[in-house]
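Table S2 (continued). Query chain:
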Amino acid sequence: MGKSHRIANCLKGALIADASALGVHWIYDVDRVAKIAKANDGSASFVPVDEANYENTKGYFAHPLRAPGANTQYGEVTHLAIDCLLGNHGKFDEDDYKQRFVAHFGPGGTYIGYIDHATRGTLENIAAEKQETGTDDVQMPALVALPAIIALDPSDAANATRVTNDNPISNNAVKVFKGLLTLVLNGSELEEALQEASKIGEEELSELLQNALNTDVTDSIAYGGETGRACYLKSALPLGFHILKHTNSYEEAIEMNNMCAGDNAGRSIFIGAVAGAYYNGVAERGIPQKWVEKYHNGEEIFDKCDRLAAMG
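Corresponding output:
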């Protein structure tokens, strides 16, 4: 399949991966996630949203208002970026993106659910009519708008991130994600792309990524104890690299990410985009049909992914 198919499956892969994590998002106890998975036919993906799963464990129940199969706030931003590019002939328009962001996440907006720190700060800065709206936030919201933008308009990846996150750590993470996803979309082998992307960015992040690829630890759940499982870019990106190296299909990568616990939804956009593009489609190693059927409003959203990919 050609690049347009890889783009479409990159976008679908990011969105489905995020939705798959909704029911276990921000549970930090890997044993609790394993127990939940055992009760869910052995899968930590598309677990029903249930507050009882968060009782007496380390975690935060953030999504009681989200429908089964829906996206978290991260995936909602990914979808918003797709709409922005579709509305602007495949190009990123910052003013239009900000207007859509406020209309969706702001007071009286269409989104009902958890609002994270970066989103809150961005809304406040836009309301105050600040020219620079990005927050000094070094967590995964920095990357969640990027699958569509890297695929269609990569020169604006940094500008898109600065709408919500503006600091050196976020800017370096954008370079890494942009480098990795561009290589995969252009047909590189995943191992080669991971190694090449690990050399991009500032020294500390590069070292963390190379450590993740070169460690003798092959169990990503165990390796998450070394990187940390939280939302921070310097934890999430190395763990994501490790997962992508040590799994062999889209389903395996997303299941492993969910089993790794913590901010699995934040990591899922990055991992799902890369795995969706690389394993490319609904097939033996691609996105499982059973997950396609569980994704909320999938037919409408997948049509958008296909239309945007045709512009690439």
